[in-house]
Amino acid sequence: MIDTPLIAGIHDKAAKKIGWRRANMVRTLLSEVFRYNIPKGLVSANFAKDVIPKRRPRDRAYANRPWTIEERDAVLGKAKPHVRVALALMMNTGLDPSDALRLRKDQVDDGTIWGVRGKTGEEVAIPVSPTLQAALDRMPNHKAETVLSNSRGEAWTYNGFSTVWHRFKTALEKEGLIEKGLTLKGLRHTVATTLREAGLDERRIADLLGQKTPSMARHYSRSANLADKNRETMATLEEENRRRAESVKPSQKSVKPDRNEDQP
User: Fold this and answer.
1) Do the Cβ atoms of 244 and 151 come closer than 8 Å?
2) Rounded to two decimals, what is the model's pTM?
3) For 69-253, which CATH superfamily applies?
4) Domain extents for the chain?
5) Residue 126's beta-bridge partner residues?
6) pLDDT tens column, 75-123
């Protein structure tokens, strides 16, 4: 006989065998199967509906955790020029690493980054903040069509930048300047978290990060309107980052920029 206690037992066994996340996926799948078959008269109820989803273990580290302000300063202070500007771009826009590395020079116009999020196809219009503009102004000259380039003046590949980042991050961990768990995607989480803690609502944050439902009818003018609203959002991010940086004790901001122009 199929009933809720039976489904709960299956859910518990799945959690022990394949983990809490996949067990919850099994619960969701069964719930959809029951929901689909109720109108057909094949089952009398959704027996998975009242099964409580498994919670994430408290001791499990979150993937792509937000960076602390001290970690941000340490990374930017030690990074080589071509790496530093790439991190600054991700840090001050919330762009996904792959989108940031692919960003073309012709996508930056009139103080705004115009692009499409590769994962969703969603248009983004991100104003260039003063902090980001200062970082871009220090970008070594290169002939690549992308905004960013490696030390040879060529466009970064995702694997190439990831390799450089991993080597660089590992060295900083050994020096005790950052904690383990820093990821490039974590910079998107950092932007979202900073803005949320500053009081902005989730809709405005989603607009900045390109998390709307894709729409083929969206036109350039609509993105322009979005850019106007996002300027206020970016101003909040800029001010909150400045406030947090000023709140850090001087002894915690002792890392000086590495003047070596070579890549890590």
Assistant:
1) no
2) 0.65
3) Intergrase catalytic core (1.10.443.10)
4) 1-60, 69-253
5) 113
6) 999 999 999 999 999 999 999 999 999 999 999 998 999 988 887 777 8
